[in-house]
Amino acid sequence: MTTTTFFIPPVNMMGAGCLVEAIQAIRSYGFRHALIVTDAGLSRAGVALKVAGLLAEQDIQSTIFDGAQPNPTVGNVEA
Hints:
Blueprint: H1 18-28, E1 33-37, H2 40-44, H3 47-57, E2 61-65, H4 74-78
Parallel strand pairs: 1-2
């Protein structure tokens, strides 16, 4: 079996207006679909939907996964 290794350095944006800047960067990279990973609390607070809405304004589809937990168990990962 052949394996492949690749490295994608993280990009961290912080500060006022960073969400708009991040959405613009996602668009400039040519991505067409985003996976929004969050926890249930932020999802209930509407944060994930806000991000999904900003993505949609840039014609980027998104899927929200709000089952993230700190220190996930094997069951969380396999789900």
